[in-house]
Amino acid sequence: MSEDRRLDVLRAIVEDYVATREPVGSRALVERHALGVSPATIRNDMAALEESGYIAQPHTSAGRVPTDKGYRLFVDRLTTVKPMSVPERRAIGAFLEEAQDLDDVVDRAVRLIAQLTQQVAVVQYPSLRRSALRHVELVPVGVRHLLVVLITDTGRVEQRTLELGADLDEVVVGQLRARLNVSAAGRRLSELPVALAELADAFGPADAPLVEAVVGVVEETLAQESEERVVLAGTAHLARGGAVDFAGSIGPVLEALEEQVVLLRLLSEMAEDNASVAVRIGRETQHEGLLETSFITSGYGDENGTSVARVGSIGPLRMDYPGTMSAVRAVARYLTRILAG
Amino acid sequence: MSEDRRLDVLRAIVEDYVATREPVGSRALVERHALGVSPATIRNDMAALEESGYIAQPHTSAGRVPTDKGYRLFVDRLTTVKPMSVPERRAIGAFLEEAQDLDDVVDRAVRLIAQLTQQVAVVQYPSLRRSALRHVELVPVGVRHLLVVLITDTGRVEQRTLELGADLDEVVVGQLRARLNVSAAGRRLSELPVALAELADAFGPADAPLVEAVVGVVEETLAQESEERVVLAGTAHLARGGAVDFAGSIGPVLEALEEQVVLLRLLSEMAEDNASVAVRIGRETQHEGLLETSFITSGYGDENGTSVARVGSIGPLRMDYPGTMSAVRAVARYLTRILAG
DNA sequence: GATTGGCACTCGTCCCGGGGGAGTGCTACC
DNA sequence: GGTAGCACTCCCCCGGGACGAGTGCCAATC
């Protein structure tokens, strides 16, 4: 019983199951794939694969279905990434190029992935933590309110309004703005607290409350992990074909997707993978609602190898892994290029 | 055959059908409602109601189900708005009060409505067109890029980056900023073009390109209707109970909801209604994907009677109309109060 | 030892037919 | 106009049987 053939069988099972949505039996396998052996032999292989936990049968007299573990082996060892065709690449590039501003880029990217993969697309806004600060703007609003605007090198703009205990002094605000920009411009947000700590010294004690408040707001903004934003598209794809792919209903999946926290945790975990494309299959997502889904993501916005955020696609376990992986990776690459330009 | 009783019967049918999800027959009706007549009489009334198109039967020997027209009559004439209880109001107010900034307010509002109505919630960002401008900020970014930030009285912030043909002159930028704020502050965006038109004259011909570019961007931003944004929550509610409420699947509904254009059209149509709460039932939505849904919205952010944007809830035809209407209206009122404060 | 053909067995799915029941429309009557 | 009775329609549920796909195992073969 050759090890190689057993893997071939697993691959064939995954491919057929993905294509047909139905448990695949030994006969069908030999008919659709040139395996060169008889169904009986395949049955033995299948028994071994089941023993090892790569496949399972829904009920006694049915064909086999890949398990999470089976899909995992498939993506790790059995799949050859099929690169996108030239026209496809060109279309992706052209579509993204047309974007006007950051919001537009993100919006187009998420729609594009939904379209390409026919699944739910996810795009994370460029992370504040890993971006560099381009400019800080202070705008007095009335006499007691100050609007603090942070602009990052990825084009992201964050603003906070600040209510002050005392009336504003325009001159001091001007000085503060100037100094802030000297200390802050070009720095990563994660390096800022150190730079800002010294700032208060430069002003007199009378202005201390203002300076501290502003510095506080800036730090708070960048510390606020919850400010990470994720955008979705293509949720309707979940319901395709009467939601056959999800045992219960798609309700739990939608719930999970609405929980930004869940997605953000997954995205940050996947950022650790150091692979160009990260994959989470079924229970690997560690989330109840996503047990019957797989999540494929890729980082974008590289700068010295560290990506700024991620894009991805979520679909049923039985999805086109190679296709989704290449689509996600392609979009991530174009995004990187566009944000750099 | 009294007209009044016929309407009572219709109301009873709607209420029962909403409660049970099942076609309601004449016997069940007399048992659950004190109508004071026999089933046979009800049958006659039902025949008349069916004749007029208010109810229909799914198949020959089944009970009756309200039609779109039936629901419409129900909400127009048969429903008494049940106000929210005091604790409910208090909870709504408290929850919304905690919000930090506009994004936060919108986010909380949309979650709140989803929670209260157990349906899909929709919140429209305060419209640019109908807001007043509070402040314009010009931020030089590098030597050839200018960031234009518009801040409205509803707290909304819009920014655009501008690429210039010539290097920036800080002094001119400062003058332009000052003049812009004089001309613009406190005005409705829709009144701005007039005010801005004269602006160019105040500067020398050398600065004309800059001034024109900035004015152009401001006008473009406010003209861009597509910048209207809508936020959703609670889409998972659509799948409740195995999506029994939607004949096909919920796919088309999700698709429609993702089309911001569709929602924006509906929202703007409903703004014309001049009622505190607007309702669109089934085909009244004029959209394929929403044939089996109803949409209830209410304006918020009143200022002299004209609302700035809308909040709403979308659910199946057989939804709790009075409850949804009062929940939506309550949230709209609190939003208005908070944005004014 | 791996492979193969044969065969009995399991079990889910489909289809069919009949009983039960809810609800209706009609008609005759008050 | 309202009511009671009645015949009729038609959906839903349920049990049983035929069918068929697929398996596991065993003995035979290369």
Characterization of this structure:
The first copy, chain A, has 13 helices and ten strands. By secondary structure, chain A is an alpha+beta fold. The first copy, chain A, has a five-stranded antiparallel β-sheet, sandwiched between helices. In chain A, strand 1 (55-56) and strand 2 (65-66) form a beta hairpin. The longest helix of chain A is centred in the last third of the chain and has 20 residues, at 321-340. Chains A and B meet through strand 4, strand 5, strand 6, helix 10 and helix 11 of A and strand 4, strand 5, strand 6, helix 10 and helix 11 of B. Chain A binds a DNA duplex (30 and 30 nucleotides) through residues 1-2, 23, 25-28, 37-41, 43-44, 46-47, 57-63.
Q: Which descriptors apply to this entry?
A:
homodimer; 341 residues; 5-stranded antiparallel β-sheet; 3-stranded antiparallel β-sheet; 13 helices; elongated; DNA-binding
